[in-house]
Design brief:
The chain starts with a helix and ends in a 6-residue tail after the last strand. The protein is globular. A hairpin with a 2-residue loop joins strand 4 and strand 5. Helix 1 packs parallel to helix 4, helix 2 packs across helix 3 and helix 3 packs antiparallel against helix 4. By secondary structure, the protein is an alpha+beta fold. It contains four helices and seven strands, in the order αβαββαββαββ. The longest helix is centred in the middle third of the chain and has 18 residues.
């Protein structure tokens, strides 16, 4: 996994990460990820709110699986057991806005952008495994799709947000 992440980062940094975009159903991508992660997520309550009428999105299925895997995995690592992890999507103009939120610790505002930096780990490095590449890979994939990703503190935890263009020409 570490080697794969390092290769992904090399592709992102060199500009060689080219999404193989096709029209996909976002809820199918999320469903695939959650089915694969069901055992690691059994200590949390998952809430999925993706409207059935959400239009197809022009994305690379495998790369978007990786984004959701990384964001959910991050939420599972830092949010206490028995808390909720939510995945929501809605249309905002000509983009889809996705939010993966958890009831884990908030991040000091001065570090919200830095958590997407390569190898950056803010807290709990002594008890939480990882390399600090997951969120930077998410950023590279979302930006390669013409989107934007950010984190924000919410009333009961932390949310990762990203937007993706709904049009093929949006990239």
């Amino acid at each position: 996994m570490l080697v794969g992440n390092l290769l992904d980062m090399s592709r992102i940094e060199s500009g060689a990460l080219k999404p193989k975009r096709e029209w996909n159903i976002l809820s199918e991508i999320v469903g695939s990820v959650l089915a694969r992660m069901r055992h690691s997520a059994d200590e949390h309550k998952l809430e999925i709110d993706i409207p059935e009428n959400l239009p197809f999105v022009p994305v690379d299925y495998v790369q978007m699986e990786q984004v959701f895997t990384n964001l959910v995995s991050n939420s599972l690592k830092y949010a206490p057991s028995k808390t909720q992890i939510s995945i929501r999507a809605n249309i905002e103009g000509d983009t889809v806005h996705v939010q993966v939120s958890n009831q884990g610790p908030q991040v000091p505002s001065e570090y919200l952008e830095r958590i997407f930096d390569k190898f950056y780990r803010l807290t709990a490095a002594d008890r939480v495994t990882g390399t600090g590449l997951g969120l930077s890979i998410c950023k590279g994939i979302i930006e390669a799709h013409g989107g934007h990703i950010w984190a924000e503190n919410i009333s009961d935890g932390l949310a990762f947000n990203f937007t993706l263009p709904l049009t093929w020409e949006g990239v």
